[in-house]
Design a protein that fits this description.
48% helix
Length: 445
């Protein structure tokens, strides 16, 4: 089968159906961010939330606050997710800094100060807000239980969704930050924060079961698998991933062209939509970027996942534009979880158990979608993980997975971080503002 969707706006497997949730009520609420797969039919349907001009007492006793609460959590996550992708891909090697902002250059150079402006405003604060909004949504939805006119099914669905976002934001904090603090608490190490995320994902799975939502249950199980993989609990990771459908499952962070603030920020920064191009794939030709070259440059060019764009100019014109083709428009969604990720987790666990043929068999359908032959794992484990790193990068390109993969594989003695940089950072430090205002966080990063 020829893969034809890598330069479409949706980048989904053939035959996937989405349910998209949108609202236009204010900046935080307006960022729609959730799409769940419900069948294999090739169509799209929308779940819209009516925009109330004024909330009346009757509104507050019905379903109106439920929709607003859920959309607020979704919107906060959307703003955090696309920025997390840009910065973690900049630190790992999927992007190089094509602009002139010093704080982005620091990340690209792997020399990140605690008072780095982007570290705080573009990543830590949005992720912290998203986590807070998700946790607060749970409290508000719990208060709505038994209210006059409240649809209990919708409330339960909202609880499951909000809990899922709470787990996901914690996982992103664990994957990106050397340590992270929540609500004035101590700065937990990545492993402890991921254990926190795992517990929330497990609760999200329980809530999805209560809400009778197989789509949210699959999403939560995938979150569990991702967390278990990070924690080195490989059998548990494979078991959770096996509960995710092997085909047809996709959950998206959804964006809109309704306003500049609602657009996909990854596209804005990589294609110059309403912004200058400040992130590009490194082609190894720029000396002041240490000649950083994306290790899969040639392979990704050959399958069309990235493309040279001499017709486009980056903000720093000395950096040639090699652009991702996965998302091309301001309203393009970004995958948060998929059947492919579940297969990749199961394949890695098999590789770690030296069952290379079974691992390759799981990956064959994914590779066939790109017209690629079956993969070969040469052994030993370190060589096999290098192969897995490319498989993961291709299937999960520009979804924020790269830094997490590189950090995990360093524990196995596989260092895939870009070389020749001024520093050696493999994660983001606790921001200085957190250290200054939260005494519990000091010494944790």
């Amino acid at each position: 089968m020829t893969h034809t969707s890598h330069d479409s706006v949706d980048f989904t497997p053939n035959g996937v159906k989405h349910i998209r949730a949108r609202s236009r009520t204010g900046r935080m609420v307006a960022f729609a961010a959730f799409a769940a797969i419900v069948s294999l039919a090739a169509c799209t349907s929308d779940l819209s939330v009516t925009d109330p001009v004024n909330l009346t007492p009757d509104d507050l006793g019905s379903n109106a606050p439920i929709g607003i609460t859920i959309n607020g959590a979704r919107g906060a996550f959307q703003r955090a997710y696309d920025r997390h992708i840009l910065y973690t891909d900049l630190l790992s090697d999927a992007f190089v800094a094509a602009g002139t902002f010093p704080y982005q250059a620091e990340v690209d150079d792997r020399s990140i100060r605690a008072n780095n402006e982007g570290l705080l405003g573009d990543m830590y604060v949005p992720l912290s807000v998203a986590r807070f909004m998700a946790d607060t949504a749970i409290a508000l939805l719990d208060q709505a239980k038994g209210g006059v006119g409240v649809d209990e099914a919708a409330r339960l669905q909202g609880v499951a969704q909000s809990r899922y976002f709470g787990g996901y934001t914690r996982a992103l904090l664990a994957e990106a930050y050397c340590a992270s603090a929540i609500s004035g608490g101590p700065a937990l190490t990545s492993d402890l924060r991921m254990a926190d995320a795992l517990a929330v994902f497990q609760d999200a799975a329980a809530k999805a079961t209560e809400a009778n939502s197989p789509q949210l249950l699959a999403a939560a199980r995938l979150g569990e698998a991702r967390a278990q993989l990070w924690l080195g609990k490989y059998a548990e990771a494979a078991a959770a991933a096996a509960l995710v459908p092997e085909t047809g499952f996709l959950i998206n962070s959804v964006y809109s062209n309704a306003s500049v603030g609602q657009k996909n920020f990854v596209v804005r920064e990589t294609y110059g939509i309403d912004e200058a191009i400040r992130f590009a794939v490194g082609d190894g030709t720029v000396s002041f970027l240490h000649n950083e070259r994306f290790p899969y440059l040639d392979n990704f060019l050959s399958i069309g996942l990235i493309r040279r764009r001499p017709d486009l100019s980056a903000f720093n014109s000395a950096v040639p534009v090699v652009a991702q083709t996965k998302m091309l428009t301001g309203d393009a969604p970004i995958p948060m979880g998929s059947s492919a990720e579940g297969l990749l987790i199961r394949a890695e666990v098999l590789v770690r158990a030296a069952n290379r043929s079974a691992a390759a068999a799981l990956l064959t359908p994914l590779r066939a979608a790109w017209n690629l032959p079956p993969v070969t794992f040469p052994g030993p484990l370190q060589a096999d993980l290098r192969v897995m790193a490319e498989e993961r990068s291709r299937e999960l390109f520009v979804t924020g997975e790269r830094l997490a993969t590189l950090r995990r594989y360093m524990k196995d003695g596989v260092d895939l971080f870009p070389t020749g940089t001024g520093g050696s950072a493999t994660c983001f430090p606790v921001p200085q503002q957190e250290l200054d205002t939260n005494p519990n966080a000091r010494g944790g990063g």
